[in-house]
Structures are given as C-alpha cells and as structure tokens.
Design brief:
DNA Binding (I), subunit A; 4 domains; seven-stranded mixed beta sheet
Amino acid sequence: MRVFVLDKNLQPLDPCHPARARELLQKGRAKVYRRYPFTIVLQDRVIEDSVTHSHRIKIDPGSKATGFAVVQEKTGRVTNALEVSHRGEQIKDALESRSLLRRGRRNRKTRYRKPRFLNRTRKQGWLPPSLESRISNIETWVRRIRKVCRVTAISQELVRFDLQQMQNPEISGVEYQRGELFGFEVKEYLLTKWGRKCAYCGVENVPLEIEHILAKSQGGSNRVTNLCLSCHPCNQAKGNKPVEEFLKKKPEVLKRVLAQAKAPLKDVAAVNATRWELYRRLQSTGLPVEVGSGGRTKFNRSRQGIEKTHWIDAACVGASTPELLLIRGIKPLLIAAKGHGTRQRCRPDKYGFPKAHAPKAKFFQGFQTGDIVKADVPTGKFAGQYVGRIAIRFRPSFVLQLPAQKFDVHPKYLKTIHKADGYEYRS
C-alpha cells in the first residue's frame, strides 16, 4: 500500500511507494505526520513544484463492514485500500440495555406518572443510532482521505436488496404481491409451517409455544423467519442459547430447523435503509458522486478475474472502473470502530442498581483510553516490545490490549504513537 504525502504547507501530493517514503525519512527530508493511515510531510516541497494526479474514492457500503479504495484515475492504480468494521450491533445492544434500566427505574420511582413517549418528535431524515453510526464512519473516512490525497470524485455502490426475492428466489406474480403471511395470522401460519409439532423434539398433540430461533436478547427479531413452535420443556431448556449449541447433539434436527427457517435479513435491511442518506451526505462534499449497481460491481470484478473482498468490491464500483486495475502489493488497512467512550457516569450491576461511579477525568499522566502506544517492558513475565491500545486506570497501572492477549503495564514504559480517535487499526 502506498504512503500518503503532504507538502510543507500540508497540501496533498501523490502517494508514494513505501521504499521512497523510507528513503525520505532517513535523509531527513520528511517527517511522520500521521501513523494511521501512514502519512509523511515533506520539509522542502510545495504543491506548485510538483505534478499531481486526480484520485477517486470508491466505496462499497455494507452492514458490518465497508470497503474503501483510492484509485488513481489516469493509471488505474489502487494506491490505498481500507476496510472499516462498524459497531452498529454494539450500539443497538447498549441502547436496549439502557432502555431496560430506565424502564425499571421509572417503574420503581414514578409508577403512576403518565407516559410521555408520544411527546417526542424526530427531525426529517432521522435514522436510528445504529444506522447513523455506519454513515458517520463512512463520512469520517472520506473526510480524512481528502485531507491527505487529491480526490476529485467519489463512487458509491447504490444497491437495493429485494427482501422477498432473497427469501424465495422463485417468487413471482400475485404471490409476490401478497407476501408469505397472506391469509394467515402468525400463530396459524407457524402451525402450518412447522406441521403442528415441536420443531426441536417433534412431539405432537401438546400445547405449543412461539419460540425465537435466535433469542431476542442475542439480537433476534420478531420476523416470522425467526419464529418456530416448540413444546414448553424444549422452550425452557433452550432459553436464550444459540440453536446450534442447543441442538449440537442432534445435527439432523439442527439442519432441518435451519433449512426450514430462513436467513435473517437485518443486514440487508440496514443497507437498504441507509443507501440514499449516504448518497445525499456524499453529495454535500461538493464532489461529483457516481453510483453503480451491485451487478455492475460483480461484472467489473469478474472481468478483472480477481477475488471478492470488501476493498476489491469498492475498487470495482461504477462505470469509472478502468479496464485494468493495478492492485499488486495492496494490503488493506483494517479499521474497527470503537467509539469515543461513554457518558454514563453511574455503573449499574446486572440488576440495574448502582454499584460504582466513573471519574469525570479522561486523561491520566497524559494518556487516554484508546491511545495506541509502544510499550518497552524491560523485565518480568511480559518483558519485550509491544504495540497496542491501552485502557487507562487512575493509578499507574494501565491495561495494554493486544490482538491475542492483554496485561497490566506501568505508564512509564509507554510512548504514544497515535492518539485515540475512536478507531482501532491492524495492518
């Protein structure tokens, strides 16, 4: 992957080869400007003395991860690639947990207060926080790339998933218009679908209960594709366990249940819900925004004969994709959204009662939770050099988080190499 380059006035130049960047740093002609993505600033060059080329940011939005590719339009070279993992599911879980705690507190403290949930209004274009975070991540990285690279256009894959067609590829005509619940109530539909017997043990002629295959506490929904029928003993025994764990000793039953139920569609629904809002936000940058279908992306990728990944899909978005993409040697920067901490000052136990209060300060001895540091531990069980994120405590003992382990380290052995910015990075 190429290295971003800025002139001495912090204006973007063309990205350079890593070997060239290393040479400039060794000769003292450049300094490190930012670690992630790696950017250098030249000490003796201005943009007027340089030849620059236009670049295009290409984006393949997804529910769990979004791919970015920076393509030099004249040569077709992919200079940089990113894959950003979103935290929409974490946000959804946190909001549901907060909602449960607040509801319990209202029931205890203000039992007879009139409900006020209808008093609140939402502005036009409002999106749930879990979806808003996905768009904000993409906006952030478009803005950051534009600061270190001369970007003249943006390409976005604007795809709409047909949920009914994904569930039943053969559906057509009036059946498509009516949907799968036509003529049924939910319970009657499930009785017909599951043969009026328990989906797990097969018992018949007993009272049956509606069961969530993926428990709601684990992110399941009330869609009929996530519902089945079970007897009371099976329902109690399964609880909120994953169905794979509950039926691990019955692989034939598990295969039948998963085949008869259908794949959840929450990921494609998230992409459908955010695609036009993302397009409007990208247009607000003032750059021309090209859109392309998922079929066009697949055609471009197949024509090039390259494998499918998030960043390669991004490089193949739209009609602007050149006949030959130069992707040799590209290794994407893997980015995971981590957020900027929490405003929650009171920490409750699992029953919702307060057990501790978080301190107001965010820094201790110049460090902040989320900083990426270089640790040089001289002695002890974990002696050696490490690079990872830290979680601070308000005493001289921080937690150093590495991909495979974490351990306590004294701040005197740490040197900050990248300040906390809400993301975690892996090469």
